[in-house]
Amino acid sequence: MIQLRYLLFLFVVATGWSQENLSYQKPPVEILALADYQRTPSVSMDSRKEYMLLSYRSTYKSLDDLNQEEMRLGGLRINPVTNISSTANYITNLKIRKVKATEEIQVAGLPENPKITFVSWSPDERKIGFTHTTAKGVELWIIDVATASAKKITADNLNANLGSPYMWKDNATLLIMQLPDNRPALIDQKKDLPTGPTVSVSDGKKSQNRTYQDLLKNKTDEANFDALVSTELYWVTLDGTKKLFKPTAIYAGVSFSPDGKYIMITQIEKPYSYIVPMSRFPQKSTVYTTDGNLVKVVNEVPLTEIMPKGFSSVRKGKRNMSWRPDLPSTLFFVEALDEGDAGKKVDYRDALYSWEAPFNAAPREFMKTIQRFSGISWGNETVAFVYDDWYDTRNQKTYFINPSINNTQPKIVWDLNSQDIYADPGEFETKRNAYNRYVLAIENDNVYLLGKGFTKEGQFPFVDEFNLKTLKSKRLYQSKLKDKKEDLQSIEDFKKGELLVMIQSKNEFPNYYFRNMKSGKLTPITSFKNPFESIKNVYKEVIKYKRNDGVELSGTLYLPANYDRTAKKEKLPLLIWAYPAEFKDKSSAGQSDKNPNEFTFPSYGSFIYWVTRGYAVLDDASFPIIGEGTTEPNDTFIPQLVANAEAAINAVDQMGYINRKKVAVGGHSYGAFMTANLLTHSNLFACGIARSGAYNRTLTPFGFQSEQRNYWDVPEIYNGMSPFMQADKMKTPLLLVHGDADNNPGTFTLQSERYFQALKGLGAPARLVLLPKEAHGYVAKENIFHLLWEQDQFLEKYLKN
Which residue in the list 742, 752, 786, 792 is annotated as catalytic? Predict the structure, then answer.
């Protein structure tokens, strides 16, 4: 157990440096009142909207939750005692309610002190499965929805190290993943001496792999990986009766055909890799009948360490293999026509195939895509929509096809810039078919689109009817709410025009309603209360302004509740929170997806808390980085970054609210990288807060964020963008925060440690806080409260005072 009194946090000032013997602190009462709240339950409804399941969980984890045993192998983080991800978030209670009633019924028979995950409705939605994690392992439980009662089905010997350890075959039978009885003991790296060195070899082929974390490192890791992820497959019925289906192997994927007659099983095979995670290990997919007879090996994927450069590149061979939801037992897959290499010039990038069980005939090619395949929406045997895109141009095409015709000539329905949110046609509505699979909702030769409805004037979600014969859309409904935000969830009754919607305002918590789009009538379903009453009267406004090159920008401005916006006598300190985003054109970069009526939800992921401490806050400020044509965004990253910041400060300053000499900037991950660069290359800020960032791009030499080029392609870009390389120019106070168990590619904890050491050695004012046991995002209550205290102390010292 961690002894809090011995936790060390490093502190540097211009005159020297020291270590502080500091225990965990809590933020001031104004912030603590917001941070220490009870999370509202999440809601899951059956497709008939007859019942809803309410899932409750703690607002935060505890440090003790993070202090469990953990092994990091193949890109996984595993608790080797309980055999479930060490990062799992647990539900602590379940209740059931009829949608058209108000009474919440406590689910009876739940385990004591439940730790619930992997909640799943049965095909007929009369039962709900979930797992409970005991001190020794994972159990399967089943809820009867009508009686709101739960019972245990298996012992705590399931293997959830690769995800959900069960799936429904039908309403009475499930397939479970169980730990093998003869599983070998894990090897203790500290006690077992190696028999030789670890050797890796390059065969001379080029590859561009990101800097992954938690990889296998040696033969001991391989043996422990085998032991932890190997499992046996059993059938289990609702009375707990079990029958072995398949012996011990590493099962990375299991899926039933829609008619339930076949099952496709994907296994991980050797050789393993020390440079890529498990998802790129060799795999074999095999189809069996559900009584265990082999039908066909349908795919074999070798170890994928070698990948062509470019975000539109893919591996060779069959990809995206899955069962078609519109047919009884037919597989769908895609195969690259350019060997997966985006750098090759070809007429078509991918071919799409349909392959009917029992796979005696060859797969049937039914379409080629001009760009890289990016998805498909199935309707029935004659209706489907296919999507392709190309990263370099941000182009996305939507095709209407008849998948029953070989090499069909598709009709392009939409040909759009994927970043143009104002032109987004919406997402197709789906419904459950006879196989209980979701397919396009087709009514009288029409399909339906639910759109987010972003426009220059604001956000107005819509429902469109799209005719399959004319390929034209007709608007059926568009939200006209002015003081609230309406999100369209689904169409519940096509004839009556009933929608399931979620409505919120800046101080009204999001709640579910039925909306009749013909009459406009609203029928409330839930009534969750605002847990943040203390900030319901803060001023909130989406402001729009322009960069010096004319690019339109926006941000959400918050002012303290008691601030006199008319007199403007007091000039407030300003906090800017942002995250850079890359674009290929100025028009898309200037579009806004901010809604002033969105519920104000303070979290450690922003500065909103500090509106209670007398600060102005510009949250989610636009920081576009644009590279048009053949120019890449990062070619001018630094000047665009500074221009974005200057425009934001100018905009709020011209409103008369702030003291522009008292402005701070902050961000997480790539936002932290942004913050360090802004403090290095401008004099706009009094201080900055950078959390879990990467500051030396030579440590991510094969690309980062949206940069496709490697270090050796453009060393000047990598060096010029790295705050570490410019540490001698940094003189502005900086608070660096990092989880000491960061698992995000590229943002090793070492990034903050080395940057801090550079700043310390060069005499810059900096403070480094390492949060124990935290990964890239922070979850422990003790750490989050202390983080808020650190930020408040830092801002009070270097900004306000």
Answer: 742
Instruction: Look at residues 676, 685, 768 and name the one whose alpha carbon lies nearest to residue 723.
Output: 676
What distance in Å separates the CA atoms of residue 732 and residue 790, rounded to the nearest whole number? 17
Of 678, 709, 671, whose CA–CA distance to 692 is shortest? 671
Beta bridge partner(s), residue 417: 395
Strand ranges (DSSP E) for 39-111? Answer: 42-45, 51-56, 71-73, 76-79, 84-85, 93-98, 105-106
The residues, any chain, with a CB within 8 Å of residue 525's CB and separated by 6 or more, are 52, 99, 511, 512, 513, 514
CB 253 within 8 A of CB 266: yes
How far is the C-alpha of 59 from the C-alpha of 580, rounded, in Å? 28
Helix or strand or coil: residue 702?
coil
| pTM beyond 0.90 | yes
DSSP string, 740-775: TT--STT--HHHHHHHHHHHHHTT--EEEEEETT--
In sequence order, which ranges of 1-132 are alpha helices (DSSP H)? 29-35, 63-66
Terminal-residue alpha carbon distance, the chain: 38
Rounded to whole angstroms, the Cα distance separating 724 from 716 reads 14
> Considering 132, 681, 738, 776, which one is annotated as catalytic?
776
- State the pLDDT at residue 305: 93
Residue 549, classified by CB atoms within 10 Å of its CB into exposed (0-12), middle (13-18) or buried (19+), is exposed
776 is catalytic: yes
Rounded Cα–Cα distance for residues 289 and 615 (Å)? 64
Catalytic residue among 669, 692, 722, 752: 669
Q: Are strands 658-668 and 572-578 parallel, antiparallel or unpaired?
A: parallel
Does 203 participate in catalysis according to the annotation?
Answer: no
Nearest alpha carbon to residue 163 among 75, 282, 236: 75
Whole-number Å distance between alpha carbons of 516 and 499: 6
Provide the pLDDT for residue 15: 33
What's the pLDDT at 18? Answer: 57
Determine the Cα–Cα distance for residues 550 and 160; give it in Å rounded to an integer. Answer: 52
416-450 b/e with 16+ CB inside 10 Å = b? ebbbebeebebebbbbebebbbebbbbeeebbbbb
What are residue 757's phi and psi, to 5 degrees?
A: -60, -40
Burial (CB < 10 A; 0-12, 13-18, 19+), residue 11, is: middle
Residues of the chain with pLDDT under 50: 1-17
Whose CA is closest to 675, among 714, 623, 633? 623
742 is known as an active-site residue: yes
Please name the residues in contact with 783: beta carbons below 8 A apart, sequence gap of 6 or more: 24, 63, 771, 772, 773, 774
The pLDDT tens digits for 754-785 are 999 999 999 999 999 999 999 999 999 999 99
Burial class (CB in 10 A: 0-12, 13-18, 19+), 796: middle
